[in-house]
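Progress narrative, Year 2. Work on Ubiquinone biosynthesis accessory factor UbiT from Ottowia flava advanced from sequence curation to structure prediction during this period.
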Amino acid sequence: MSPDSAAPSHARGAEFAVPAPVAALLARLPALPGSLLLVTALNAVLIRHLPGDVRQRLAHRRLSIRVRDARVAFDFVWMGSHFEPRPPQAEPDLIVSASAHDFLRLAQRKVDADTLFFSRRLVMEGDTELGLVVKNAMDAIELPVLDPRHWSPRAVLARRTQAARGRA
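Result:
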């Protein structure tokens, strides 16, 4: 599935969707800067939470996160100690695709990956065993690591201020 593919046409209620004109603009942007931003976040947030067996299974595997309604893809690889961005790949080992809204809900733990998968809102293509490893690793990570509110500038500043006071 390409990032240009349309999102599923089922009823979405009050769900957020990236507006088509914004998605058209995003689809024209170079892919590598977005992948660099994603891997920077992954390296800052996830590395210390990935078990050794998961790190080993991910080694040099090509991954692609595709946000269907935004028409963007983030391609990267696990290098054994960190994630690195990659230019768009014709055949990554694993493609995980969903809408921006569903990825956000997944990160906030408002919905689980199985629910999205079985309702065909989250699609994994490629190495299914690798997909299960990634899904299980994400399920095992404790909140608030995946909650975007934990990483807002205000929340980060508050934690750093508290840590600095604790050292003083």
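Residues 20-142 form a domain with the Nonspecific Lipid-transfer Protein; Chain A fold (CATH 3.30.1050.10). The CA atoms of residues 56 and 116 lie 27 Å apart.
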